[in-house]
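Input record, target 12 of the design panel.
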């Protein structure tokens, strides 16, 4: 068992699971989040509470950023009391946010200029797999970053794909995953909406589809939220406004057409503008007119 110091910035659904997995693996896990009550609760489990990324970076040689986007990554690394101000030369940053590949490339260079290593390492699998230490990581970066990260990656993920030594490759694969995830959620919502419109029993429809060729991981995972009328955000509508936006931005630079991605993006945009942006991404079904959604089961 190791007692190496490792820091986790961001204790959302995925970040908290990562922090707990590393704690079980024997690391001394330092954590910070904008919500102090979440940090204190993690400290009660055996973690170390930090008031800021800089405070964490003063004692950790490896810092993992598990935030939402590029803007938050920028803030926790380079903002007021950001981690970069306190990281020692040779330290490693593992970036898990879904960001534009160009941002990952630029970030790697900025950190290298300060004597820091960077691993472009987006994650997938959901909160349950993060909590079990079984999530998937899509990583890219130089050999020295992998060498330093090896034990940490083993403690936080079930599958670590090494996609190359150039920053940005991990992020490219992640946004392609998000293309499929977003399209599958939108298609699942459309299918359930048609079923409801045509008077098909929603629970029966879910049972049949999940045992038929039309099933997908997203259909199987997200439709129960609709059936239970539970739109508590595990992954919000606005996440796919952002992620499918990154997909389209990336393709636009090479003038590559993505008609299904564009349609799904518009569906999430419509749901967000209708006031559902902070609800679970399955709430995209609420854009369809003339249907009665399932009520919460008593």
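The sequence produced for target 12 reads:
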């Amino acid at each position: 068992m190791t007692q190496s110091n490792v820091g986790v910035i961001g204790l959302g659904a995925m970040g908290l699971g990562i922090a707990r997995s590393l704690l079980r693996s024997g690391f001394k896990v330092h954590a910070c989040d904008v919500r102090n009550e979440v940090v204190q609760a993690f400290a009660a489990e055996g973690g170390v509470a930090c008031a800021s990324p800089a405070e964490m970076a003063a004692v950790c040689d490896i810092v993992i950023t598990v935030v939402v986007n590029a803007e938050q990554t920028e803030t926790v690394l380079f903002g007021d009391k950001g981690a970069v101000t306190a990281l020692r030369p040779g330290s490693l940053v593992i970036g898990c946010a879904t960001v534009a590949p160009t941002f990952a490339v630029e970030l790697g260079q900025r950190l290298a200029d300060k004597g820091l290593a960077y691993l472009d390492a987006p994650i997938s699998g959901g909160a349950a797999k993060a909590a079990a230490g079984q999530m998937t990581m899509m990583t890219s970066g130089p050999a020295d970053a992998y060498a330093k990260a090896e034990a940490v990656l083993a403690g936080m993920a079930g599958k670590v794909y090494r996609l190359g030594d150039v920053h940005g490759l991990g992020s490219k694969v992640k946004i392609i995953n998000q293309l499929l995830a977003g399209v599958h959620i939108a298609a699942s919502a459309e299918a359930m909406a048609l079923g409801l419109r045509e008077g098909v029993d929603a629970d029966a429809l879910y049972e049949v589809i999940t045992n038929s060729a039309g099933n997908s991981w997203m259909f199987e995972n997200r439709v129960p939220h609709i059936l239970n009328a539970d739109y508590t955000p595990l992954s919000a509508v606005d996440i796919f406004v952002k992620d499918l936006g990154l997909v389209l931005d990336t393709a636009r630079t090479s003038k590559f057409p993505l008609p299904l991605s564009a349609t799904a993006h518009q569906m999430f945009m419509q749901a967000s503008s209708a006031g559902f942006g902070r609800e679970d991404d399955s709430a995209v079904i609420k854009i369809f007119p003339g249907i009665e959604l399932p009520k919460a089961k008593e």
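The chain has a mean pLDDT of 96.
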